Amino acid sequence: MLEARNLRKTFGELRATDDVSLQFGTTDGEMVFIVGPNGAGKTTLVNLLTGLLTPDQGSVVVHQDDGDGSTVEREITGLAPEKRVDAGLVRSFQIVHVFEEMTVRENLRVAVLSERGETLNVLSFDDGHDGVERTVDDLLAQFRLEDVADEVADTLPHGDRKLLDVAMSFGLEPTYLLLDEPTAGVATREKEYVIETIAEASDADDVTTVTIEHDMDIVKSYADRLVVLHEGRVFREGDPSLLETDGELRRVLLGVDE
Amino acid sequence: MFESLPYHALNGVYYGFILFMIAAGLTIVFGVLGVLNLAHGELYAFGAFVAFSIVGYLTGLVAEPTGPVTALIFGAVVLVGSLAAAAVLLPVGATLEAAFVRPIYDRDDVYQLLLTYALLLILTDVMKFVWGAKPLDVGVYDGLNAIPTTELFGIDYPTYNVVVVAVGLVVFGWLVWFFDRTKTGRIVRATAIDREMATAIGVSTDRIFTLVFAMGAFFAGFGGAMVSIGPGSAYLEMGLSPLVLSFVVIVIGGLGSLRGALVGALLVGVTTQVVTPYYSELELAVPFVLMVVVLLVRPEGLYGTWGEIE
Amino acid sequence: MSRARLSAENLPTSVRVVLVVLGLGVLLAVPDLARVTPLSFATIHKGLLFGLAAVGLNLLLRHTELVSFGHVAFFGTGAYGAAVLATYYEVSSGLVLLAGAVLAATAVALVVGYLVAGHLDIYFALLTLAFNQVLFAFVVQSSFFNSTDGLSVRVGVDRPSLLGLDQLLVSAGLDPVQAYNYVLYYLTVAILVVVVLVTWKLVNSPFGRALDAIGQDRTRARFIGIPVERYVWIAFTISGIYGGIAGGLFALLQLHVRPEPVLFAFVSGEILFMAILGGVGTLVGPIVGGVILVYLLDLARFYVTYYHALTGIVLLAVVYFLPEGILGSLPALGAAIERRRRDPGLVRNDVETVVTSVRRSVRRAVTTVRILVFGVN
Amino acid sequence: MTGRPSSSNDTGGIERRDALKLVGGSTLAVALAGCTALIGDESDDSTEDADVPDEPIEAGLQTFTEGAPAVLGLQAQYGAETAVRRINDDGGVAGREIDLDVVNEGDEHIQNYRQFVDEGKDVTFGPISSGGHEAMVPEIEDRGVVNVATDGTVTTLYEESFPDATYSFRFQNHDVMEALAAVNQAVEVLGADSIDTYAGINPNYAFGQDEMALFSSGIEKLTGAEEVYSGFPELGADDMSAHVTEVNGTEPDVVFSSCWGGDATLLLEQAHANGMFDSTDLLVGPVLYGSANDLSADLVDGPIYSGSRNFYWDEPGTDRWTPAADLVSEVQSEYDVVPTAHFMSGYGAVTAWATAAEKAVDVLGRWPEQDEIAAILEGHGFFTPAGYHTIGADHQGYSNAHFGELAWSDEYDAAILENVSVFAPKDVSPPPGTVSGDWIDAW
């Protein structure tokens, strides 16, 4: 379980994150969606959780299985992003971040190599690890990227780039995967395809996903749980059906009176 | 041993303004075009040589100063000559940009470095061809100092230094005015921040880039002209050390920031001049130590930047 | 690595083998070539050494995409490391001098690398430049390093010994100076081959791929768990070590080390340009670039009055006509020549293209100037 | 070992034979001494029958041909070219003309020398840079092609670093001679009792630091004066006002400056502009006059004395000494400058080698090997229009050192020296085998 405890972050006068306490992964493979109007502090929250920002107050904690069934708390508030990856915490960005000059396969390979702790290895060849190659093949299949496996990333269509970005994250064998608008900029007809692929993969690997999303139809169809942020605070938390039933919530999200 | 400290500080201000004039052009070009122009120092040297010719010709037409009035006339002629010399750099800069730099904007940064380095080498020999291999001194420094300025306040201080500071302030004021108050200036700034958006609203980035490069050359040349009419001479390799110092200045100030360039230049100028007489051995190192310290403490420089960083 | 993809690495294996063998053959034959042609043996040797430093710089440039403007710092540290051992500790073994060079360069690279690893782009470039100049200023001021006069790399007037191999040649009847230079040259070639092989292994290893990742997207690299600063630091240090080896060998070649040629920041720029000139996207391009640029910078003045301009024009030609550097553009060039051999008509098109582009440049320039001067279009 | 040629223009008394004997025995030596006019150019060479190859002598000179140091470097080039011209006009060295290649020395002294040797040069000259010269010496010893350095005047070179050199020589006086000449000049002008304090502004590299150290020990020894300020602006400085300001603040009796080229001009400009000559009684500089052609009337105004190493063109006076007059008019028409000490560096270096080579042919009856020329150069004496020079057994050239007051000449449109003092080598340099520092201490 990944837990935010009383997180607070201000930029000048702006309280981007204001006393936020949340738990993710209370059930295995949970899909949590974070919604909220622009400027609600969604991305700041993800940045605090993944270590791109350090909070002014509060802490980030993971609950880890210590092997004999009980769990231990591990505080990771001050941990560098790359160290959090070891703790199972992985993210994607709103703007696609892939290695543009590498092929799809090379992108996935470097992620998997990193996950296996092989990146300091100078004695082998990068493509000489059979286990890694098998995992890469699985990822290619899982994210339906086999056809473009040898294409260079910056030549791919946007949807495939998004999928590659997410596939790399899965290659890191995350426990918690934080996705910042995975469907942003993806053509409408491809959105479903992208999110469906993510859902399948997270289901298969029991990954807890925390997704920032603007498309309420997607949220309604896929969310196990909903977190609504507004002005840096947790405004609502609960079942996605709140989107249908909570009038105040609808006003906040749409910014209009109905 | 510190009784001369105010004088050293004053010398530092003068030296700082010289540095500012050179660095201003570099920072504008870098801020807008994103090109680190290694040939900037040669444009500065070019200005110094052109000033040798033009100022030399013009002062040949007027009498050597004998009293305050003739000295003022003399000074005005020298300044006009320096401006004319810098103006020669406008077409030079524009030509270089249009003919050489423009075709490679979309190439990797390192090729722009290689290109401007090639231009540096070629410009050096162009100057060698036109003005010969030896240093040239136009010899108007004495005449400029005949203008009474500091004596009026009872201080014995070269008028030339005062002129440099005044001219430097005017250059700074003009640049701030240009970028803040004129339409062209605002367009240039918009282009610096977002090229695509500027193109989208109908700005010809080609024109802007040429203009900016020509401006950069102009101020480099003007800096060179101001040095040329001072106690120093124009010589072939004179651009190398100011080029490196300009890097330091614009990095300390924040890349692309004019105010930063001014503050950075004054900081480098004053620190160097105050430290030098007491610790000569540090003279070379001071600007770089200053830069390392500033970058380690404030990685984006004192005044941030025009362009975007990741 | 689209850069590499565009260049040498997509040549067929057979062609690559031929090129490697040819390259090695030329390297081994240099002393003989220099004897029968006006080529300067010493200058080519020096060029190879700067090329070696450029290979190191290219490790950063090509993979982590960091531009170092201060690389001669390590070359110079290496050279001075050897000189200090010879001058103050009377070390006469060439290998020990070389080891000293590498140690000194490693130490400096570790410190500088630690401080610059977190910086990017121009800030990285100018920080490395700053450290370079601080080091230069320090050496120039230091009486230990004998200020601008520099240090000798001899014990008394004797050249260092090179494993006794030079003595062997002398007893075989060779002139001692020649024997020393031959042995040193072949030692250089051997080291060069080893370094190139090591680099090839390095850049094709998982670590090399991690460096690529850092270069292409630092944020993403961090978020796949790569400790970016630490890896940049390691790469920087390795790259500095190359510089140190080259500098140490240079000290053995020149036998006297002065600050301006081995520590001044502009020489750092030259090393950078060697890498670009030869081909950033290639493994051995920087060596080719090193030999060519050193040759131009050192010897052009013996043949022409306007030698700066000559060097400048060569560089301009590379920028415009060999966009991937000399070695990097070979495949494209080869393909183009092949096409033209089949269809000579293309050559006329080329000429037209060049003429048009020159004409266009001139017209642009003239228009620009006209607008500037007369304010009208 | 010194002795100036007769400063009388009454040549009628000199027999041709005597003149030949006096200047070294051959018409070549006569031509290079500038005395051809005195004795006619009728050939009397004993080298005529010698077994000498026909092809020209390939010679290389490295000097600063461009940029700031070209102020000195081009003078050396002019000097070398003038000597070569005179040699070739005279029919060459034992009948062999000289082809002189000139190359910019830059920072690549060893490289340049190697390239010259690889190109098959018979002899090389240069450089100007003292550090460059020091770096070259072992290479010269290795390669075994004689190099006569024009300048490269670091004192310790042949004194301590390379006492056993074979092929490497230096024509110009070394640092000790000019720094101590400056000491003597200061004492001569102000009197030892009037010098209580001194200051220095010297270029920040080995040469400037060495000169200042030598001046300090000399002036302290002679006058007991105390150093009040010593500043080292970087070589090729943009600005020296900080140092001038400090001098103004400390008001020393004497200021010493070994600044040269553009630095010398800059120093004088800023010294005047900041009123430095109100704060000090005397500025002495060994190489200020190197910038003779770049100074102006305003700049030389004041109590400024400059050295001119082993040659000042008007000493002996051009009105009394035809060789000097001929040389100046030749240089003026050819190069439009007045010659400075660095002109003689080039001229003398070539002359030293050429006269030695001819002497060798004379002795051997064939063209000499490198080591034979080198052997003859040791202790070799010869004339130039500057007078008599010797190359010592230590491979160092010894000639008179010149010092005088800077003044302006409208006639030549250049700075000149007045009241020139001539210091014999023995007065300003240690006897062979003695280290300078010890020698000064023993004053």
Descriptive overview:
The complex is a heterotetramer of chains A (258), B (310), C (377) and D (443). With 258 residues, chain A is α/β, with parallel strands linked by helices. Chain A has one domain: P-loop containing nucleotide triphosphate hydrolases (Rossmann fold, 3-Layer(aba) Sandwich). Chain A is 35% helix and 26% strand. In chain A, strand 9 (225-230) and strand 10 (233-238) form a beta hairpin. Chain A is globular, with a radius of gyration of 19 Å. Helices cover 78% and strands 1% of the residues of chain C. Chain C is built from 18 helices and two strands. Chain C is an all-alpha fold and 377 residues long. The longest helix of chain C is centred in the C-terminal third of the chain and has 30 residues, at 345-374. Chain C has two domains: 26-319, ABC transporter involved in vitamin B12 uptake, BtuC (Orthogonal Bundle), CATH 1.10.3470; 343-374. In chain C, helix 3 (41-64) crosses helix 13. Chain D is α/β, with parallel strands linked by helices and 443 residues long. Chain D has two domains: 16-172 and 318-398, Rossmann fold (3-Layer(aba) Sandwich); 176-308 and 401-441, Rossmann fold, CATH 3.40.50.2300. Chain D has a seven-stranded mixed beta sheet with strand order 7-6-8-9-10-14-15, sandwiched between helices. In chain D, a hairpin with a 4-residue loop joins strand 14 and strand 15. In chain D, helix 4 (70-89) runs parallel beside helix 13 and helix 8 (175-190) crosses helix 9. The model of chain D is unreliable at 1-14 (pLDDT under 50). Chains in contact: A-C, B-C, B-D, C-D. At the B-C interface, helix 3, helix 4, helix 10 and helix 12 of B face helix 6, helix 13, helix 15 and helix 18 of C.
Total count of strands of chain C: 2
The oligomeric state is heterotetramer
Strand count, sense and barrel status of the largest sheet of chain C are: 2 strands, antiparallel
Provide the structure class of chain C.
mainly alpha
Distance between the termini of chain C: 44 Å
Helix/strand order of chain B: HHHHHHHHHHHH
Portion in beta strands of chain C: under 5%
Strand order in space, largest sheet of chain C: 1-2
The total of helices of chain B stands at 12
Could you describe the largest sheet of chain B, including whether it forms a barrel?
Answer: none
Number of domains of chain C: 2
Provide the low-confidence segments of chain C as ranges: 1-8
Spans of at least 5 consecutive residues with low confidence of chain B: 306-310
Please compute the radius of gyration of chain C using only Cα atoms.
22 Å
- Quickly give the structural class of chain B: mainly alpha
Query: CATH fold name of the largest domain in chain C, please?
Result: ABC transporter involved in vitamin B12 uptake, BtuC
Total strands of chain B = 0
Mean pLDDT of chain B: 88
Tally of separate helices of chain C: 18
